[in-house]
Design a protein that fits this description.
The chain is α+β, with helices and mostly antiparallel strands. 30% of the residues lie in helices and 31% in strands.
C-alpha cells in the first residue's frame, strides 16, 4: 500500500468525498483471501463489496449478522482514502472481528503513517 500512496481515484461512490482507488479492491482481496484461507467458516464484509451509502452498508451488515456465520471480519481496505489519494501518510487498513454480532477486536494496520485510534 505504501508504494501506491497518492494513487489515482478510479471513481467516486456515495459523494465526492467517498473515493475509490485501484488500491482499495486490491488490498481488500489480499485480506479476504488470507481470512478465507485461515478461517474458512468465518464471514467477511469489506467496504468495497457493498454498494455505496449508509443504507446499503447497514443493510449488508444486518443481513450478514442475521444469517451469517458466527464470526465476521469487517474491513476498510484504506481508511482515510482522501488522505491516501493526496499523498498524505495519514491512512490505514482497518480490520475488525465480531463474534455473534459483538465486536471482539478492531485494529488499524498502520503501514502508511500515523493513525489515531
Amino acid at each position: 500500500m505504501l508504494q501506491k500512496l497518492g494513487a489515482d481515484v478510479v471513481k467516486t461512490k456515495a459523494n465526492t468525498r467517498d473515493l475509490l482507488t485501484e488500491v482499495d479492491p486490491e488490498v481488500q482481496e489480499i485480506i479476504s483471501s488470507a481470512v478465507r484461507l485461515a478461517f474458512p467458516d468465518h464471514g467477511f464484509l469489506g467496504e468495497e463489496s457493498v454498494p455505496p451509502g449508509m443504507e446499503a452498508s447497514s443493510r449488508a451488515l444486518d443481513e450478514i449478522l442475521t444469517d451469517g456465520p458466527e464470526y465476521l471480519w469487517v474491513v476498510d481496505p484504506i481508511d482515510g482514502t482522501t488522505n491516501f489519494v493526496h499523498g498524505m501518510p495519514l491512512s490505514a487498513i482497518s480490520i475488525g472481528v465480531a463474534h455473534k454480532a459483538r465486536s471482539i477486536h478492531w485494529s488499524p494496520y498502520d503501514r502508511v503513517g500515523v493513525v489515531n485510534a
